């Protein structure tokens, strides 16, 4: 027994290195597979539907990318778009977050420089899946910094298929969030990395990554508030170190300078309250750094004296500064916060003051089921992850916990921010699963080795014999283990490393042993719980695939329904946009509710009055007012806006629920917010919104009702609305100021044209009518003769 | 002379059948055909077939060219058909001339509502506009059926079913003109492609990819007023009769990977039938086309290479139809682009009719030099132009391998670069602290590994001691046991000697702050373990020498035993930890 051990001792380093190399290759291979998984799980939309841009905002981004690839970067920055917000226009270059567009534009440029003929559309469609793969790798890095390779791989695998993220990044969902989540996670990774190493190199990279995030998404304020919070937490808990300083100070300086370069942010980077916290913490950090410096210089007694002196003076100065700041901030009406940020801090704010923000469904607070839909079993694993983070609380793991807690709050305010929660939940679940597997496999290993040892222990009584056998056993079984158990010791090692960083104590070496001994579970229990955990993971995978395939891959511009005859395709939106783009004049203006603005400009290439960039409330309110006014008033509003066509979305024939009638109350509300003659109660019968026989006359005479239900009754003779589930109130009516020019196959989009202004002579005619009947009759006869008029 | 006009489709087709007699004294080698400029402008195709002799026999195609004879009115355009051999005096020639006119039918009224059917008007002369005197001539006009609104009536005009007959007229002098107007209903699809770009891309990997970009307009009477989907859906034949909702494309057999889309995505309304002879694709535009409405779309399909590209005399040639596969479509401007593979040379084309030609270069799929593109342009293309044309070129199969080789080389270089990067030291300064630190760290690691080796040897010695004790309990040979202890002691001393310089070097290195405490710990523990082991060994051997009972020995060393076990475990875990660094 002794001999082989003695022999093995000499070549021991070689297998160790080989094992490390093997582990590295396995890890890299796993990461590649995770990337492939993240990419391919998002291709359901392409396979089930087609390679097409989805929904609303992506169409705008697509259009901007097209412009960028056609006209180049300088034209892009100076782009004044006269095809939206007619007659105001919109300065696109200064009001978009350019990160996504520039990313896709450079991918396109690169691919075309290699003479690979990919269209801009293809590049845009696949940008989101590519970046999800990169985001899962970034998650690996971040989690690895906090808890080691095993947890990192686990978290990356979980993030690759978390439904919440899939919902925003399926192929075709070409939206800011697709690249922003990568930027968010990567910025956090670089922050934690800097915090762990204290390297200025990473600090600079961190500022650059933050810059990319600022370019990509308005959610960058989350970073610039979360990191100061963490810095503050570290200071308060007495974890100040020079590494903390290096991690934070360059980020604030460089990051703010870089952020100010992005036109859409500009001076907001120093002026608005969202960024205030970062500067405050910056000052605090310097004060603390100074105190630590002084502490090193002075003797304890002198230091105490200096402290009292500085604190009295410093507090006075601080109060003065804070007072000035408060006064400055309070002087602005929104307290220096933007509407969206305010609605985050005060969830009831938007519904009270900004109906436009409240009207968007993704700005509503989520329901409980949506948590289970979007993060599924992670919701149960997260608490375990938090506990695991606390076991040895390091700077990195405290950051994870803080990230999770804030993200949970924000996701509770807005459904959309569930997306920010997703990476946090994935990281903590990855940590939880990895630690669980770690404990379970270790105790299994231990118990198994004991089981094998029992034989020799009975025959001979020497325990050393047994223990040497166990070492052999362990090392051999280790080589057979998969990457999970492979990763486990590494994780332990990094954990220990970090603790060493802080304080070099002898006790460290004892602690892990204690842990080891404590966490030995019975063999059966550990096997069963491993199987249960694997089953839980399997359940999660099944759910994710289902969510990716069924729930989140519909492009929403093409709808399908399954019936007995097979798949039925509703392609009405594109039918209408194609009609508009080919059969109306290039400069005609199309009015519709703002939801369809981006699609109309991108797909039909026609000028719209309002679009999804809801920057001008009054303009939207004008359209809302027109839609809720009677025909003549609406005609006048539209005519004053030079509108030629009005587009409404109507789902009553085929039962498409998110149509304009269902959105109509928001039009009334938003219109009424600016133009008081539109009153919401006029459209409600006893506080209930309805369009059946009980509906109010105002409702039944407004333009939206008329345009939606024009000649609807002739389809089935009753006018049964399949969305609302009842017969409509007013069935037979004629349009006087509008004429139907196009209705799509399933009636989902109806386009009307404003009738031209009546001839002056007819206006006179009415007056003349009373005076002489003779002139009028001849005129009328003249009109009749000309059937083309 | 007989003349018949066919207006069943939306494109006007005229067939003349003439008996030409040479009444002069000289042999004639050319026959002149005259058309008014207005018609000649829209003349899409003209073809003449001549047969000499009285009986109609095998006819031969006659070459036709535009001529401008002197002393004729400038409003006329003349074509001359050259006979294969001059027509002798008194001989008779049968001449069939086929002409196809576009825009021959004008919608009237020009704007109609959805409910109206489309009326068209046609103007011509009832006499054939001939530069020669005509003895007898008739004119018959085939109409598509349906209502005939009005027609010019002369003496001998008959309307039978859907055929309108003028004549016979006898002894008509040259250039006589007798205007007629026919106004009738025609609801055939007036599909006009404003522009069609056909791209034929040859890949010698086995595919001919054809992509056709259509810009189609309904060329008939324009829709006026409302379009009501309700009327269109509930009474499609009564309302919207002038519109068309689908087009049929007859693609070659074995066409595959067919797609149909426009710039905003796939269009799902299409049907495909295929058999061994042809593939029929029925496509519906996104919306029905009413008069004046237009739409654009793209269809694409792949064809097997061996069906269309052949080789002859060291050259390869593509043999494929020129026009669009769509039925009954008038193309105002057809551009055919033949994209030949990269590296093709000596490009030559033979087309059955004159076209504008030029060459371009297209870059695609990792091209370096680009692919030569032969562009043919022809205005006013009608289904009659759907003839085969040939493109000859030279291409070496070796060129096929260029791109795969390029990729292989590229990836190879990438991997080589990776390997080189991993094996070279890229640090900017050899004196930089991080670089020095790395070197020192490597050194420390090497030393630590040596130290580990020593400790493993120590442990082995421990095991030897244990075995000796074992042997003692079995044999009671205290002497050999003592000898073993002595040997072990010597070995321990030797190992300690070896260990010392290593430990010193680790301690002195600035990079060891992480492991030093562990090492220190390890050394201390191991020393303790050694002492304990020796002590126990001594005790056991002593007691055996004093012949004490086994039970007593057990009692005496039991406390030591536990400590030893604990220490051993600690040492092992420390060693394991070190090996993981």
UniProtKB/TrEMBL annotation, chain B:
<feature type="transmembrane region" description="Helical">
    <location>
        <begin position="400"/>
        <end position="422"/>
    </location>
</feature>
<comment type="similarity">
    <text>Belongs to the OST1 family.</text>
</comment>
<keyword id="KW-0732">Signal</keyword>
<keyword id="KW-0256">Endoplasmic reticulum</keyword>
<comment type="subunit">
    <text>Component of the oligosaccharyltransferase (OST) complex.</text>
</comment>
<protein>
    <recommendedName>
        <fullName>Dolichyl-diphosphooligosaccharide--protein glycosyltransferase subunit 1</fullName>
    </recommendedName>
</protein>
<keyword id="KW-0812">Transmembrane</keyword>
<comment type="function">
    <text>Subunit of the oligosaccharyl transferase (OST) complex that catalyzes the initial transfer of a defined glycan (Glc(3)Man(9)GlcNAc(2) in eukaryotes) from the lipid carrier dolichol-pyrophosphate to an asparagine residue within an Asn-X-Ser/Thr consensus motif in nascent polypeptide chains, the first step in protein N-glycosylation. N-glycosylation occurs cotranslationally and the complex associates with the Sec61 complex at the channel-forming translocon complex that mediates protein translocation across the endoplasmic reticulum (ER). All subunits are required for a maximal enzyme activity.</text>
</comment>
<comment type="pathway">
    <text>Protein modification; protein glycosylation.</text>
</comment>
<keyword id="KW-0472">Membrane</keyword>
<dbReference type="GO" id="GO:0018279">
    <property type="term" value="P:protein N-linked glycosylation via asparagine"/>
</dbReference>
<dbReference type="InterPro" id="IPR007676">
    <property type="entry name" value="Ribophorin_I"/>
</dbReference>
<feature type="coiled-coil region">
    <location>
        <begin position="550"/>
        <end position="577"/>
    </location>
</feature>
<keyword id="KW-1133">Transmembrane helix</keyword>
<dbReference type="GO" id="GO:0008250">
    <property type="term" value="C:oligosaccharyltransferase complex"/>
</dbReference>
<keyword id="KW-0175">Coiled coil</keyword>
<dbReference type="Pfam" id="PF04597">
    <property type="entry name" value="Ribophorin_I"/>
</dbReference>
């Amino acid at each position: 027994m002794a001999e082989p051990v003695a022999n093995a001792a000499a070549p021991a380093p070689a297998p160790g290195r080989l094992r490390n190399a093997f582990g590295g290759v396995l890890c890299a291979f796993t990461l590649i597979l995770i990337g492939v998984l993240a990419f391919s799980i998002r291709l359901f939309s392409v396979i089930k539907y087609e390679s097409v841009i989805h929904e609303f905002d992506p169409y705008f981004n697509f259009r901007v990318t097209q412009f960028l690839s056609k006209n180049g970067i300088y034209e892009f920055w100076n782009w004044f778009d006269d095809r939206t917000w007619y007659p105001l226009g919109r300065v696109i270059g200064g009001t978009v977050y350019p990160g996504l567009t520039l990313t896709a534009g450079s991918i396109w440029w690169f691919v075309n420089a290699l003479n690979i003929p990919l269209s801009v559309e293809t590049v845009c469609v696949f940008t989101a899946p590519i970046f999800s793969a990169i985001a899962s790798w970034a998650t690996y890095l971040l989690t690895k910094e906090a808890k080691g390779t095993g947890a990192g791989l686990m978290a990356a695998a979980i993030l690759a298929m978390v439904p919440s993220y899939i919902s925003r990044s399926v192929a075709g969902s070409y939206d800011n969030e697709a690249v922003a989540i990568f930027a968010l996670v990567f910025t956090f990774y670089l922050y934690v990395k800097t915090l762990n190493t204290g390297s200025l190199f990473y600090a600079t990279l961190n500022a650059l990554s933050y810059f990319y995030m600022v370019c990509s998404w308005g959610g960058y304020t989350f970073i610039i508030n979360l990191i100061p919070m963490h810095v503050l937490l570290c200071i308060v808990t007495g974890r100040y170190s020079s590494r903390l300083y290096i991690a934070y100070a360059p980020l604030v300086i460089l990051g703010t300078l870089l952020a100010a370069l992005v036109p859409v942010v500009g001076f907001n980077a120093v002026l608005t309250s969202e960024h205030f916290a970062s500067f405050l913490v910056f000052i605090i950090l310097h004060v603390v750094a100074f105190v630590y410096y002084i502490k090193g210089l002075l003797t304890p007694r002198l230091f105490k004296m200096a402290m009292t002196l500085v604190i009295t003076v410093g507090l006075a100065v601080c109060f003065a500064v804070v007072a000035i700041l408060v006064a400055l901030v309070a002087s602005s009406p929104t307290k220096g916060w933007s509407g969206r940020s305010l609605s985050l801090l005060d969830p009831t704010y938007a519904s009270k003051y900004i109906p436009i923000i409240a009207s968007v469904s993704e700005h509503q607070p989520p329901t409980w089921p949506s948590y289970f839909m979007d993060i599924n079993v992670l919701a149960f694993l997260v608490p375990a992850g938090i506990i695991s983070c606390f076991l040895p609380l390091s700077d990195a793991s405290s950051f994870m916990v803080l990230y999770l807690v804030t993200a949970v709050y924000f996701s509770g305010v807005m459904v959309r921010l569930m997306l920010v929660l997703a990476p946090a939940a994935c990281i903590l679940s990855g940590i939880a699963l990895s630690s669980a597997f770690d404990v379970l496999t270790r105790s299994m290993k231990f118990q198994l080795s004991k089981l094998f040892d029992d034989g020799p222990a009975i025959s001979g009584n020497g325990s050393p014999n047994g223990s040497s056998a166990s070492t052999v056993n362990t090392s051999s079984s280790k080589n057979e283990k998969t990457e999970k158990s492979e990763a486990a010791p590494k994780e332990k090692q990094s954990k220990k490393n970090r603790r060493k960083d802080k304080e070099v104590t002898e006790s460290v070496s004892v602690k892990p042993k204690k842990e080891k001994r404590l966490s030995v579970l019975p063999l059966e229990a550990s096997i069963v719980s491993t199987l249960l955990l694997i089953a839980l993971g399997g359940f999660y995978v099944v759910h994710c695939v289902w969510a990716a395939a069924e729930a989140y891959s519909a492009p929403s511009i093409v709808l399908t329904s399954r019936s007995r005859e097979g798949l039925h395709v509703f392609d009405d939106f594109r039918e209408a946009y194609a009609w508009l783009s080919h059969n109306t004049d290039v400069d005609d203006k199309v009015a519709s509710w703002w939801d369809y603005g981006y699609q109309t400009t991108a797909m039909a290439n026609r000028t719209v009055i309002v679009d999804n960039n809801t920057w001008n409330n009054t303009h939207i309110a004008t359209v809302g007012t027109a839609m809720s006014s009677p025909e003549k008033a609406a005609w006048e509003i539209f005519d004053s806006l030079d509108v030629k066509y009005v587009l409404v979305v109507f789902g009553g024939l085929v039962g498409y629920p998110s149509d304009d009638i269902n959105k109509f109350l928001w039009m009334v509300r938003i219109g009424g917010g600016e133009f008081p003659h539109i009153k919401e109660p006029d459209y409600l019968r006893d506080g209930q919104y309805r369009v059946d026989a009980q509906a109010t006359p105002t409702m039944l005479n407004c333009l939206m009702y008329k345009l939606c239900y024009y000649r609807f009754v002739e389809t089935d003779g009753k006018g049964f609305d399949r969305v609302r589930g009842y017969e409509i109130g007013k069935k037979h009516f004629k349009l006087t100021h509008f004429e139907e020019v196009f209705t799509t196959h399933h009636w989902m989009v109806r386009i009307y044209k404003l009738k031209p202004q009546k001839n002056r002579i007819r206006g006179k005619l009415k007056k003349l009518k009373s005076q002489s009947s003779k002139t009028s009759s001849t005129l009328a006869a003249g009109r009749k003769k000309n059937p083309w008029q | 002379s007989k003349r018949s006009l066919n207006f069943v489709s939306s494109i006007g087709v005229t067939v003349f059948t003439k008996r030409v007699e040479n009444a002069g004294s000289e042999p004639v080698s050319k026959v002149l055909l005259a058309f008014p400029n207005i018609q000649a402008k829209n003349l899409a195709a003209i073809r003449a077939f001549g047969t000499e002799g009285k009986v109609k026999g095998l006819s031969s195609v006659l070459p036709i060219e535009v001529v401008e004879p002197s002393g004729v009115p400038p409003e006329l355009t003349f074509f001359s058909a050259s006979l294969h051999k001059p027509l002798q005096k008194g001989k008779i020639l049968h001449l069939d001339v086929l002409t196809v006119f576009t825009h021959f039918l004008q919608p009237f009224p020009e704007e109609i509502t959805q409910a109206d059917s489309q009326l068209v008007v046609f103007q011509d002369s009832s006499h054939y506009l001939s530069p020669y005197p005509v003895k007898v001539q008739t004119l018959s006009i085939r109409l598509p059926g349906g209502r005939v609104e009005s027609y010019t009536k002369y003496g001998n005009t008959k309307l039978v079913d859907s055929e309108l007959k003028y004549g016979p007229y006898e002894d008509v002098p040259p250039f006589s003109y007798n205007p007629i107007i026919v106004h009738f209903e025609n609801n055939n699809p007036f599909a006009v492609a404003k522009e069609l770009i056909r791209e034929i891309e040859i890949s010698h990997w086995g595919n001919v990819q054809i992509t056709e970009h259509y810009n189609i307009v309904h060329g008939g009477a324009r829709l006026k007023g409302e379009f009501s989907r309700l009327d269109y859906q509930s009474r499609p034949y009564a309302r919207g009769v002038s519109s068309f909702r689908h087009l049929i494309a007859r693609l070659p057999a074995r066409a595959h990977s067919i797609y149909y889309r426009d710039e905003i995505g796939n269009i799902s309304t299409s049907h495909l039938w295929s058999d061994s002879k042809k593939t029929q694709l029925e496509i519906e535009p996104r919306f029905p086309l009413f008069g004046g409405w237009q739409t654009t779309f793209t269809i694409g399909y792949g064809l097997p290479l061996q069906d269309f590209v052949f080789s002859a005399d060291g050259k390869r040639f593509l043999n494929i139809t020129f026009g669009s596969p769509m039925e009954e479509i008038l193309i105002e401007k057809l551009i055919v682009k033949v994209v030949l593979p990269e590296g093709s040379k000596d490009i030559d084309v033979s087309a059955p009719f004159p076209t504008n030609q030029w060459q371009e270069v297209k870059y695609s799929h990792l091209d370096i030099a680009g692919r030569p593109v032969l562009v043919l342009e022809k205005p006013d293309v009608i289904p009659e132009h759907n003839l085969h044309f040939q493109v000859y070129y030279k291409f070496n199969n070796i060129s096929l391998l260029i791109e795969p080789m390029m990729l292989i080389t590229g990836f190879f270089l990438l991997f080589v670069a990776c390997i080189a990067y991993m094996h070279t030291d890229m640090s900017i300064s050899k004196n930089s602290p991080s670089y020095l630190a790395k070197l020192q760290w490597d050194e420390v690691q090497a030393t630590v590994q040596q130290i580990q080796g020593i400790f493993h040897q120590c442990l082995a010695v421990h095991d030897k001691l244990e075995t000796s004790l074992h042997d003692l309990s079995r044999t009671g040979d205290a002497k050999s046991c003592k000898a073993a202890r002595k040997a072990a002691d010597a070995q321990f001393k030797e190992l300690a000697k070896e260990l010392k310089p290593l430990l010193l070097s680790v301690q002195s290195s600035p990079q060891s702050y992480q492991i030093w405490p562990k090492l220190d710990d390890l050394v201390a523990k191991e020393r303790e373990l050694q002492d304990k082991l020796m002590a126990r060994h001594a005790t056991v051997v002593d007691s055996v020498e004093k012949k004490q009972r086994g039970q007593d020995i057990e009692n005496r060393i039991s406390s030591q035993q536990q400590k030893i076990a604990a220490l051993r475990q600690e040492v092992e875990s420390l060693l394991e930890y070190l090996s993981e660094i």
